[in-house]
Each structure stands twice: as structure tokens, then as C-alpha cells.
Write a structure and sequence with these properties.
InterPro entries: CheY-like_superfamily, NreC/VraR/RcsB-like_REC, Sig_transdc_resp-reg_C-effctor, Sig_transdc_resp-reg_receiver, Tscrpt_reg_LuxR_C, WalR-like. It comes from Streptomyces himalayensis subsp. himalayensis. With about 240 residues, the chain is of the alpha/beta class. It is built from twelve helices and five strands. The protein has two domains: about 20-145, Response regulator (Rossmann fold), CATH 3.40.50; about 165-235, Arc Repressor Mutant, subunit A. Strands 2-1-3-4-5 form a five-stranded parallel β-sheet, sandwiched between helices. The longest helix has 15 residues, at about 205-220. The protein is globular and about 50 Å long. The protein starts with 5 loop residues before the first helix and ends in a 10-residue tail after the last helix.
């Protein structure tokens, strides 16, 4: 006779918990890493799979620990976070690894270099705990974390600075886009997600997502972060206007 609890066991066995986001923490300050590790481990959908004190260690651990996402400090000894991000983005074996960089905001103008290197977004280092967890989820899901307002102004200021190269000139810029696609690109650059873009333009979220994907294809952009760079470098979006 089949034990009465077997059917329940079968149902339990068939249930699969959502996969955890495998997070690697890269920061040269031990206390910062420890604090972030405690926070990440407190989330049911995340786990810390490694901690690195240098960019070189971050690259090595990204390969060995099979991380999904790296919370990457910019200023680290040996290899800094920008170069580490560039190495990771160029490695085909690490194609699925996302990088979320940290910045001191007002003093750290290397953020655009990090985005060009392959980062999917960035956070201010004094970010609130809940915001860090939400940011990890957002970037791990394939979205770029680019907030409107101060973030947009920082991006624009750095892009206008001396020595700024042009990503848009390499892709042809927004001239190849339709009018609707230019509208969508403008909203992406101002930090709106697909649902917000859909609401703003009277579209369905799926249509908004399709537009974003087509824009990325036409511009040869890897992600939304590069779309923001194109929008500012081309002058499609002006700092302080609508942001």
C-alpha cells in the first residue's frame, strides 16, 4: 500500500524554487564587502558566491564561481573595476555575467568608461539596502540600471568633458531610427523602463520592449546603457531637459 504522504511528497518534489542570483562582490574594503555580503545573503533569491579585493580577483572568480552578476567597485588595486569589467565583457565564456558598478558619484567621473567597458549600470556607494537588492534583481534580469535626474546629468556632463570619445559615431547614431524609435530612445535615456515607456507613448509593454530591442539592433548597442550613451552623445537628449 502506498504511504498516504507520498502524494504530498511527489508534489513537494515537483516544486522547484526560483533559481538564486549568484552574486560576486568586488571591493578592496573588507568592511564594505562584508556588509554587502550580509545584505545579499538576507535575500531569499540571492547568494554570494565569492568576494574579491582586486579587479584581477574579480575576473578570476567570475570564471570559477559561475557568478550571474558582479557588484564591482571602480577603484581597486592591481586591476581597477573598469578594466576588470572590460576583460569580463570581452570574454565569450562570461557572456552572461552582468556587472553593476559602484561610484562615489560626485567625485568619480570614470562611470562612463565603466558603461562603455560593458557595465549594465551603476549605484552610488551609500545606496540604501533595499535599493541595492532591487538593483541586483534589475540588472540580473537583463535591464540596465540607469536612473533619471542626477544620473542622467552626470552621464551628460562626462560625455561633454575633454577627451570623451563617441560611441554614437561608431554606430551611426539615431539618424537610422524611425520617429517612434527616436521617441523610445529618448525615454530610455531618461531612465524609463519598458512599462513606463509604454504608458508615456500609449503602447503595450510588449510593443515598447520590441521597439527597444529593434533600436539596440540598429545601433549595435549591447544594452540599454549604451543606448543612453548614444542619446546623449548625439544630442538627442539634452541634460536638464525633461530629466
Amino acid at each position: 500500500m502506498t504511504p498516504p504522504h507520498d502524494s504530498q511528497s511527489a508534489r513537494t518534489a515537483s516544486y522547484e524554487a526560483p533559481p538564486s542570483i549568484r552574486v560576486l562582490l568586488a571591493d578592496d574594503q573588507t568592511l564594505v564587502r562584508a556588509s554587502f555580503a550580509m545584505l545579499v545573503e538576507s535575500a531569499r533569491d540571492m547568494e554570494v558566491v565569492g568576494q574579491a579585493a582586486t579587479g584581477r580577483e574579480a575576473v578570476e572568480l567570475a570564471r570559477s564561481a559561475r557568478a550571474d552578476l558582479i557588484v564591482m567597485d571602480i577603484r581597486m588595486p592591481d586591476v581597477d573595476g573598469i578594466e576588470a569589467t572590460r576583460i569580463i565583457a570581452a570574454d565569450e565564456d562570461l557572456a552572461g555575467v552582468k556587472v553593476l558598478v559602484l561610484t562615489t558619484y560626485d567625485t568619480d567621473e570614470h562611470i562612463i568608461e565603466a558603461l562603455r567597458a560593458g557595465a549594465s549600470g551603476f549605484l552610488v556607494k551609500d545606496v540604501k539596502p533595499a535599493e541595492l537588492l532591487d538593483a541586483i534583481r534589475t540588472v540580473a534580469a537583463g535591464e540596465s540600471l540607469l536612473s533619471p535626474g542626477p544620473t542622467a546629468r552626470l552621464i551628460a556632463r562626462v560625455l561633454r568633458g575633454p577627451g570623451a570619445d563617441t560611441f554614437s559615431s561608431a554606430t551611426g547614431g539615431p539618424d537610422c531610427l524611425s520617429e517612434r524609435e527616436r521617441q523610445v530612445l529618448t525615454l530610455v535615456a531618461r531612465g524609463l523602463n519598458n512599462t513606463e515607456i509604454a504608458d508615456a507613448l500609449g503602447l503595450s509593454p510588449l510593443t515598447a520592449k520590441t521597439h527597444v530591442s529593434r533600436i539596440m539592433g540598429k545601433l549595435g548597442a549591447r544594452d540599454r546603457a549604451q543606448l543612453v550613451i548614444v542619446a546623449y552623445e548625439s544630442g538627442l537628449v539634452t541634460p536638464g531637459v525633461g530629466g
